[in-house]
Amino acid sequence: MEQALLRILRTLGSTAHLTQAHARLLAAGLAASPRLLPALVAAAFSAHSPRYAAAALRAAGPAASTVSHNTLVERLAGARPRGRRPAPAPAPADALAAYAAMRAQGVPPNGFTFTFLLRACALLGLPRPCGCVHGQIVRCGFGSDVFVQNALMDVYHRCGGGGGGGVGAARQVFDEMVDRDVVSWNSIVGVYMSSGDATGAMGFFEAMPERNVVSWNTVVAGFARMGDMVTARAVFDRMPSRNAVSWNLMISGYAMSGDVEAARSVFDRMDQKDVVSWTAMVSAYAKIGDLDTVNELFDHMPVKNLVSWNAMITGYNHNSRYDEALRTFQLMMLEGRFRPDEATLVSVVSACAQLGSVEYCNWISSFIGKSNIHLTVALGNALIDMFAKCGDVGRAESIFYKMETRCIITWTTMISGFAFNGLCRDALLVYNNMCREGVQLDDTVFIAALAACAHGGLLQEGWSIFNEMVERYNIQPRMEHYGCMVDLLGRAELIEYVSKKITELEPFNSSYQVLVSNCSALEGRWDGVIDARTSMRNWGIEKVPGSSSIQVGSEVHEFLAKDTRHKRRKEIYETVDGLMALMRHTEQAHWDLFVARYWGYSMLDRATTVNMGKGDLPIVLQLYQEDHRSFDHQAAVRGLKLISPSNSCQRWEQGQPLDKLVVTTHKSHHHPGVYRNQRSPHKALIRSILAYWDTRNTWNHFHLVHSETVSYSATQSQAKNGRFFHCPALSPLLPKAGAGGMKLGDCCLEGPRIRWWLNYPGVHSEI
DNA sequence: ATAGGGTTAG
């Protein structure tokens, strides 16, 4: 009977089966069976019912074994997932509560209980719970259990406590230990190494009664982390024996210090290369932008795992090849061997954000919703950024409020998200809430807040935030903060001016001159602005490379500024120029509020451009196909065919409305602070326009969106890594012609494990 | 059959 029930509990499929098995267990009088109850707890937990598990334990009362309680504590603390089923997210606070319940029942803990609890403390990352658990350990008589003490050392080190970033507390535990084994010594060496105290660490290393390969690895890892590869190498050479980890430490150490050649030579000399070695090399080459080698390595890897795929995806992201990043993700999904984890999705979400395609964003967020992935802080941050960049601030906001824990990046992203979309007042509301919640602020969040003021022309608010930053939060303003203030001063006047003038503006021609003269009439203010920008450039503050993207139907083509690699670039640029010229000569331009707002934002940069004697007017156009009489349809078709010889183009040629055509080109420009590592706010604005049209579902129109702003050229390396993409991420997944039930604009993704349909606009259904 | 603590790749 007991055997049979045990077998059933191990192979449970659903919550319903769980209840049935539990009922039989109760009927057989085995409710507190030391063999069955732990299995029941584990099964309940795997069925995503931690509460059921806790209830079963409570019902069993004091008869429940320590082991059965430990099972729950262990799972709540985030045990390694067993089997192929995804485990529920860890709930460290609940683990502590489960311990309290256990004690309340009078069930005695053992050493295992405390190692699990300490893992929960590590997840919480706070010194206080560590102290509480430490107290329990001592009181329950486990103060000399070497496993528990080792875990305690580690957790104090991670969570801080006792001063010196946890070194003090860890040291104290070490000193008070009655018995120490090699792990204890390794731990204390590791603690000193990662606190940067190599001398202290080496003192312990020399004093160790015995060393194993991990002891040596800990030292090598320490020096490698500090960037001291010379010493790391010396230690490595002295090692009596090495394992794969030792070699991998050298590879990743050299890669981190930027010496890919050295990493390569270690890799080549290694005869026990494993996935870690290969993956480390993949990311090393991705880091220096050598994507050919990256691909070659990836193709030759004997074994790939999820981390290898993730390294590829983030490698592409790192080189601004977002399309390739998505394609890699799709390939991984098609292969179906690995479930994406949080790291995968963070990368994929940021690729989607950069591509700015509303379809991809919908697709990936729907995917995340359905795949039961825990919304961690990093993933939440990425999602907020993605939705904000796609112009869907509403969804960005709802993610923000859904998040259980937020970090300073969350707040910063939300503030910039509102500001990107022109909702500067909302950005400041978030800022105020943040201040009220007593979050530890850093200087970056002030850049976001000040940029929000600058965009909204909120002069007073900007000043008060600036002063608050300096006086109340004691943050030294950096170049970026001053940059925002310069923007703010310039823009506040300008927006007022532009909003008066905007109705008088004629498109394209004379207005250009009008604006130029008016800009320079702003009493020398511009000189200050331009000076500041020039000096920022001289300071070496990086700017984002300009990029353009062309989206036809569901395909996104992207190329970067100063791109020289594509063979047909000349034709392509000519085509785009031609399309722009067509737009310029079309009289039936429809301007709306967005245009006005866009004008307001781009003025500053315009002035700089003028000063540099470069560029053209920023243009945001929506041309309604039905309307344009003087539009050269044939020329546009020719151009489009060159860019994308797709179905939709032929249909358009035959006089049918185009499903969707969006051309955005922009050259990026320097924006202080927040925009340093992100795209220019202009792109965000364009996206908000796109989102606006998306909500109206009026894609039967022909939209051309063009903005050309400041044109500092991209650096050589940026240009080198840039490339024209003509491999749409979804194309291998698009349905074959004639596949039943698919309409134009639908995308299909099929794999052994998943089968999704993306049915534009934003309606997802699973088959 | 709770399978605990120290080192490596995103």
From TrEMBL:
It comes from Oryza rufipogon (Brownbeard rice). It holds the Pfam family PPR. GO terms for molecular function: RNA binding. GO terms for biological process: RNA modification. This is CRR4. NCBIfam families: PPR (TIGR00756). Keywords: Repeat, Transit peptide. The keyword Transit peptide applies. Gene3D superfamilies: Tetratricopeptide repeat domain (1.25.40.10). Signal peptide: none annotated. PPR repeats lie at residues 212-242, 243-277, 305-340, 407-441. InterPro entries: E_motif, PPR_At4g14850-like_plant, PPR_rpt, TPR-like_helical_dom_sf.
